[in-house]
Write a structure and sequence with these properties.
alpha/beta, Arc Repressor Mutant, subunit A, D-Maltodextrin-Binding Protein, domain 2, nine-stranded mixed sheet, two-stranded antiparallel sheet, 11 helices, 13 strands, LysR family transcriptional regulator, DNA-binding
Amino acid sequence: MTMMDEKDCLMLCYIAEEHSLKRAADRLYITQPALTYRLNQMEKEFGVPIIVRGNRGTQLTMEGERLLQYAKRNLRELTELKEAVIHLSGEVKGTLRLGISSYYGHYRLPPILKSFKDIYPDVQFSVTCGLSAEIYEMLRGDEIHLGVIRNDYPWSEGKHLLHEEHICVISKEAVALEQLPELPLIRYKDPGNPQLSGHMYSSFNESVQAWWSERFGRPPRVSMEVDSYETCKEMVRHGLGYSIVPEIFVSPKDELYAFHLIRQNGDPVLRRTWMLYKNKSSRLMAVERFVEWMLQT
């Protein structure tokens, strides 16, 4: 039976992701003719077409998709084998595959990685930053060892609360709580889908909506929706309305008025940041040490 090596598997994955032979070749650090030659060889060996070119770029055929499934499984098993061998040595080394929510990656992650690297110089990092919903799916699909995400997702394995922050109303001028329904709201719009693979999570907007429903008997007067907290803040700074954002995005130099959202039972409305991982990943030495480091930081 024809076998594919690691480079062949990567080639199929990159073609599927890039829809371009040139970009796939660039990621493999080979020329496009070299990639095309190997692809032609594989098509002859398997006796089926693997790609088709069209208006949407290069796509995998049905047979190519089946080979892609094998390639992904093969790469995952090879990675797990390498990690298991490293673990047997008892050394803290290897590549940590991390998925980090964008804002945490920007504001908090760099010094954490730097200090960890100083202690464990043989550990390398493969970091993916993105929406929490995307990171969650990557973790469920074993694409990463550990995820740092915001909001509350269903998770029954390794889970640690890293951070809680208040959600607050911000405005350019002082406003009273009872005035809010009359004022223009610059609303943050979740860019992700709140339902993934049949699982629901508590989103930022759901938390705000629950607070609003307790306080007011009518909807807010939304003047605009934006998909960035920083954009919300800039709109407020220019006097275009008020907004509701996590406290981390507001600093004294912004010169904005802010007050925390408080539920009627006295509980603050908070946004939580969680560290999630599968139990099997925590058995790897590098993952175990990184989890400990995150909890100490």
